[in-house]
Q: What sequence folds into this?
C-alpha cells in the first residue's frame, strides 16, 4: 500500500525529519521535525505532519492523507502527487489541472527547527490552509501530548512542552486559533513490527496563506530559538551547500552530530539508534574518507579518550550506563592508534595514555566478565546472559547468540590493539611493551582456533561458520597464520558472501533463520542467525586482498557496486540498510545505518556513488 521507501534529512545534531514518498506516516518515528535535545540523544518528535488543504475559487482540495485506526486512508490527496529528492531534499508536487503546488522540507545546520517551503505555479490565486500536527513526545513512544501553554497572535504562536518553547510562524498568513485533537492515527509499520500503532496528534489551529500568481515565498517555520532568520536566506544557503557536496559526502554527513566543546558523535543509524560506540568506531574511517573535514577523527575520538570505561552505547536521560562490550574499547585502541600514526590526531601522547589505561583494564580484570587468561594470553569474556560481542541481540533477558569464552574476532582485536599500541608508542618515542604478549597471543591462537579444514572456530566451543573469523585475516595485523588465510576466505566466499553483505551464519547451520520476523521475537532470533550485514563487506574485502583469491576482488567489488547503486533507491533513499534477508537481499532493520554506508564508501572508488 503506497511506496515503502523512506527519506531522511538531518541538521548535523542528530535532529531529523523522516517520511515516505506518499507523504503518509507509517512509523512512530516519521515526522517533519524530531529534535535531539541533547545531541544526538533524547529525541523528541515535535512536528509530526501538516494537514494541507488548498482552496482554488470555490473548490477545496485536501492534499494530505493518513492511515486511520478504522482501516481507511484519507482525506486526500486528490489530483496527481509526485515525489523527488533534489540533493537529498524531499519535494512533493501536486498537479491539479493547470495548477501546481510544490512542498519541500528543509533542515539547515545551525538552525534548530524545520522550514517547510511552498511554491505555487498557477495563473490563478488560491489559499493554502496549513494545520500543523504536533506530537510533543519521545520519538520512541507513541502518545501525543498537549503543550503546557499556547500563546498566539494573528500571525504566529508559541507553544511549550516541558521547558522548550516552539515558535511557529507562516509569514504572510493569518493564524486561526482552534486547539484540537486529530484522533486515531494508525502506523502500519509499527503494527507489523509488533509494537503499539495508534496515537492522537494535537493542533493549536491553522494558518490561512493567500497565494498570488507564481508565489514562491510561502513558508511554515518551526523553531525553538525564537529565530527571526529569513527562511528564504536559510534555504538558499543550504541549497548552495548541498550542491557543493560530493555524492559520497551527502551519504555520509547525515550520521554526524555536533556536540558541545567541538566534539562530534556518529549516529549508528536512523530512525531508532543514537550513538553506539562500536558502530561509531567502525564507521569512522569510511566517513573520514568521504567527508572533507580534516579534524573529524579528533572530534569523534576525543570523547572516547576521556572516558574511564567505553560503554556499549551512550546513555540517555536518567539511564545509568547501558552496559559494556568486550570489543568497543579494543576498536577505540585500533582506530585511535591508526589515526594518530597517520597524523590525524593533534596530541598522540594523550591517546597513548588512554590506550594504556584500556589495556590495563583488560589485564587487571576491571571490566566485568572480561579477563586475560594467563595460561594463553587470550581474551576471555562471560557475563552470564549479557552478550558482550557485536552479536548482542537478547530475548527475554537471554542472549540469542551469547558466544561466551574466547571469540575469534575478539582475539584478533586484542592482538591488533597490542600491536597498534606499541606501534604508536614507537612513533612518538616511547618504548614498546607488548612484544612478548603479542607472540604469546599469536602462538596460542594458532594452536587453539584452527579447525581441521583450515578454517577458524567462531569460539573455542563453537565451529559454526560465521564471518567473525575474517577479522583474524583482514585486520592490519593478521592473527591467523598465512597458510590459513585462503581457507578462511574460501569458506566465506562459498557460504557467507552476498553482494549485499555477509551472512551472520551459514544457512547450513542448525540455528540459521532466513526471515527477519515476524514480530519482535522473530526479529531478535534472526538478527545474528543468518541476516546479511552490508558492513561486513569491509572486512571481507580486507581479508580477500591478502589471499590467493585476490584476483577476484575487482569482479566481486563490481557486484557490490551494482547492488549499492540499486539499494540507494530501494529502502532508505540515499542510505544503506542495517541488514538484508539472506535469500533475496530484501532490506530490513534500520534503513539508514552508519557502518553500512561507511564501509561501502571505504571500499568503493569515488565515482561509483555518482
A:
Amino acid at each position: 500500500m503506497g511506496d515503502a521507501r523512506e527519506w531522511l534529512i538531518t541538521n548535523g545534531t542528530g535532529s531529523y525529519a523522516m517520511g515516505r514518498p506518499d507523504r503518509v506516516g507509517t512509523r512512530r518515528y516519521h515526522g517533519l521535525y524530531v529534535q535531539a535535545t541533547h545531541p544526538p540523544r533524547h529525541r523528541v518528535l515535535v512536528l509530526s505532519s501538516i494537514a494541507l488543504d488548498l482552496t482554488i475559487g470555490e473548490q477545496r482540495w485536501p492534499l494530505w492523507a493518513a492511515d486511520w485506526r478504522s482501516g481507511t486512508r484519507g482525506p486526500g490527496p486528490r489530483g496527481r502527487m509526485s515525489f523527488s529528492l533534489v540533493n537529498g531534499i524531499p519535494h512533493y508536487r501536486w498537479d491539479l489541472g493547470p495548477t501546481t503546488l510544490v512542498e519541500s522540507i528543509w533542515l539547515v545546520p545551525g538552525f534548530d527547527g524545520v522550514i517547510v517551503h511552498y511554491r505555487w505555479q498557477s495563473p490563478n490565486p488560491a489559499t493554502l490552509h496549513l494545520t500543523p500536527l504536533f506530537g510533543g513526545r519521545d520519538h520512541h513512544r507513541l502518545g501525543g501530548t498537549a503543550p503546557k501553554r499556547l500563546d498566539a497572535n494573528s500571525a504566529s504562536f508559541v507553544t511549550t512542552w516541558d521547558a522548550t518553547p516552539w515558535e511557529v510562524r507562516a509569514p504572510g498568513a493569518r493564524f486561526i486559533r482552534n486547539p484540537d485533537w486529530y484522533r486515531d492515527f494508525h502506523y502500519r509499520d509499527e503494527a507489523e513490527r509488533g509494537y503499539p500503532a495508534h496515537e492522537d496528534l494535537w493542533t493549536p489551529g491553522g494558518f490561512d496563506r493567500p497565494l498570488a500568481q507564481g508565489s514562491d515565498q510561502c513558508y511554515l517555520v518551526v523553531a525553538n530559538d525564537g529565530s527571526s532568520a529569513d527562511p528564504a536566506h536559510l534555504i538558499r544557503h543550504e541549497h548552495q551547500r548541498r550542491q557543493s557536496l560530493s555524492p559520497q559526502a551527502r551519504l555520509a554527513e547525515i550520521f554526524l552530530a555536533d556536540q558541545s566543546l567541538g566534539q562530534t558523535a556518529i549516529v549508528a543509524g536512523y530512525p531508532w539508534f543514537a550513538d553506539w560506540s562500536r558502530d561509531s568506531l567502525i564507521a569512522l574511517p569510511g566517513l573520514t574518507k568521504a567527508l572533507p573535514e580534516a579534524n573529524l577523527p579528533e572530534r569523534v575520538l576525543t570523547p572516547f579518550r576521556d572516558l574511564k570505561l567505553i560503554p556499549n552505547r551512550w546513555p540517555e536521560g536518567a539511564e545509568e550506563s547501558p552496559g559494556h562490550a568486550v570489543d568497543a574499547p579494543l576498536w577505540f585502541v585500533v582506530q585511535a592508534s591508526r589515526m594518530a600514526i597517520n597524523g590525524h590526531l593533534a596530541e598522540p601522547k594523550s591517546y597513548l595514555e588512554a590506550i594504556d589505561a584500556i589495556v590495563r583494564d583488560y589485564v587487571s580484570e576491571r571490566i566485568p566478565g572480561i579477563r586475560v587468561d594467563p595460561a594463553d594470553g587470550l581474551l576471555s569474556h562471560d557475563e552470564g546472559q549479557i552478550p558482550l560481542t557485536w552479536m548482542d541481540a537478547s530475548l527475554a533477558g537471554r542472549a540469542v547468540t551469547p558466544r561466551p569464552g574466547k571469540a575469534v574476532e575478539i582475539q584478533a582485536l586484542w592482538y591488533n590493539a597490542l600491536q597498534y599500541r606499541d606501534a604508536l608508542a614507537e612513533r612518538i618515542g616511547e618504548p614498546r611493551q607488548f612484544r612478548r604478549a603479542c607472540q604469546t597471543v599469536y602462538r596460542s591462537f594458532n594452536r587453539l582456533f584452527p579447525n581441521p579444514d583450515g578454517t577458524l572456530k567462531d569460539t573455542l566451543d563453537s565451529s559454526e561458520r560465521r564471518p567473525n573469523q575474517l577479522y583474524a585475516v583482514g585486520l592490519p595485523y593478521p592473527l591467523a597464520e598465512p597458510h590459513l588465510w585462503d581457507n578462511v576466505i574460501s569458506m566465506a566466499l562459498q557460504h557467507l558472501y552476498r553482494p549485499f553483505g555477509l551472512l551472520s551464519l551459514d544457512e547450513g547451520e542448525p540455528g540459521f533463520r532466513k526471515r527477519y520476523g515476524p514480530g519482535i521475537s522473530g526479529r531478535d532470533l534472526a538478527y545474528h542467525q543468518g541476516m546479511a550485514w552490508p558492513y561486513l563487506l569491509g572486512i571481507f574485502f580486507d581479508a580477500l586482498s591478502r589471499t590467493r583469491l585476490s584476483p577476484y576482488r575487482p569482479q566481486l567489488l563490481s557486484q557490490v557496486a551494482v547492488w549499492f547503486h540499486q539499494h540507494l533507491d530501494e529502502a532508505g533513499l540515499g542510505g544503506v540498510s542495517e541488514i538484508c534477508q539472506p535469500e533475496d537481499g530484501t532490506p530490513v532493520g534500520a534503513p539508514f545505518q552508519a557502518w553500512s554506508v561507511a564501509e561501502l564508501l571505504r571500499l568503493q572508488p569515488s565515482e561509483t556513488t555518482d
About this structure: The first strand starts at residue 7 and ends at 10. The chain has 15 helices and 31 strands.
